[in-house]
From TrEMBL:
Name of this protein: Histidine kinase
Pfam name, any one: DUF6446
Classification lineage: Bacteria, Pseudomonadati, Pseudomonadota, Alphaproteobacteria, Rhodobacterales
Length: 166
């Protein structure tokens, strides 16, 4: 009888731990970002455009958790440096304006174009902006070469800037 109780207690602790970790990753660490002062900008460009219907989330637990969706009068053929290998990262299911799969498909199909918004917005992470043919815009942070090396534990090369936290 004592063994059954112990197994049930262990199973319940495991289940509560799993639910707690899931909740923390999907809900707790994310905060909605105020749209005030939100502007679209491209690195090495003078492009500035207005954005409406802005929805954005961020978390201080990781440099790549930022996501934003908006409407804009920009078109994908703007004069900005394209961002090669732009890969939108999935957002929590409750942030339904940001569909990483659909954005990725639009980038592959050529109905959207991604460009560098801000290089090294956080160490090793670039802010990527994608604009679609229908005037929707998306923003996310993506690890750059230095970030991929820094966060996998590999020695950072000389072509990467020094980290401020070291």
């Amino acid at each position: 009888m004592m063994g059954r109780i112990l197994v049930i207690v262990i199973a319940l602790v495991g289940l509560l731990t799993a639910v707690g970790v899931w909740y923390l990753q999907v809900f707790h660490y994310y905060d909605r970002v105020s749209p005030e002062g939100f502007e679209i900008q491209a690195e090495n460009s003078t492009i500035r455009a207005s954005a409406t219907n802005i929805e954005a989330i961020d978390a201080n637990s990781s440099p790549i958790r930022f996501r934003a969706c908006f409407n804009t009068d920009l078109t994908p053929d703007i004069d900005a440096v394209p961002y090669e290998d732009a890969t939108p990262l999935t957002a929590p299911f409750w942030f339904d304006c940001f569909d990483a799969d659909a954005i990725g498909e639009a980038l592959e199909a050529g109905t959207a174009r991604a460009f560098l918004g801000t290089e090294n917005i956080a160490y090793g992470a670039d802010r990527i902006v994608a604009i679609t043919d229908d005037g929707r815009g998306y923003v996310w942070h993506q690890l750059n070469n230095c970030g991929e090396v820094a966060y996998d534990g590999t020695q950072i090369g000389e072509d990467c800037p020094p980290r401020e936290d070291q």
